[in-house]
Design brief:
Length: about 240
């Protein structure tokens, strides 16, 4: 199976969680919109897909299947490539964790766009600062503390135990993204989640992930994606 991933070509965004899974298992895939005419092809897929059109990127073409929504794509890839337990209960548990991560990603985005994505950050600086302060006071401890406790209670190297799942790859991206967007705040908080930091480091050393991170396929963090570094929000 050679997959076709459709996502915006200049940001990591929600598509990065899918890229990490594909890279970790060494799957063959084309990042369609990064090629010539790829963005147009992506838009055509959304507008011209009969019956079950994807609402927005990312979506994955796997043979005749077109699968949208990050967590849904990872549910499919996890089962096919050993990034999820084989038992139904385990599959649903990892999917549940991924949906929780998706909720957290929305809250991360809302730190710099609390009034909505149609406005620029410069149009909502004061609300963004207020939202970010609340985010770090109550939301980060709640979410990261939850995953920290899971790693500890499962007694393994990863969030569900001894084997890595796509949820672990996504948690790697969360830690990396928060380090980029909020270097000062995250540096102060990391001592509270040492197991989650160790999980991040463990994922970063997986051979395929390590090669990916060093390659041009890994789009750098920037101020157009979910994780954005605005200095006034990191004070």
């Amino acid at each position: 199976m050679h997959y076709q991933l459709y996502y915006w070509p200049s940001i990591q965004g929600r598509g990065e969680y899918v890229r990490l899974a594909l890279e970790d298992v060494g799957a063959g895939y084309t990042d369609v919109a990064r090629g010539r005419g790829g963005t147009g092809a992506m838009m055509k897929m959304m507008e011209g897909q009969k019956g079950t059109p994807p609402f927005a990127p990312p979506f994955l073409k796997a043979g005749r299947l077109v699968i949208g929504q990050t967590a849904n794509i990872l549910l499919y890839l996890g089962a096919r490539h050993g990034l999820a337990p084989k038992a139904e209960a385990g599959k649903l548990w990892v999917h549940q964790l991924q949906l929780t991560i998706a909720d957290f990603v929305v809250e991360i985005h809302d730190t710099h766009h609390p009034l909505g994505p149609s406005l620029y950050y410069e149009d909502q600086k004061a609300p963004a600062k207020k939202r970010t302060d609340e985010f770090w006071t109550s939301r980060v401890p709640k979410y990261l503390g939850y995953f920290e406790d899971l790693v500890q209670s499962n007694g393994g190297a990863f969030v569900t135990g001894r084997r890595a799942t796509y949820a672990d790859l996504s948690l790697f991206q969360i830690v990396a993204g928060l380090r980029y967007a909020f270097p000062k705040r995250m540096a102060g908080f990391e001592k509270k989640v040492p197991r989650l930091v160790a999980l991040h480091d463990r994922i970063a050393e997986r051979p395929n992930i390590k090669a990916y991170l060093a390659s041009k396929r890994r789009i750098p963090f920037n101020e157009d994606g979910i994780f954005r570094r605005y200095r006034p929000l990191d004070l």
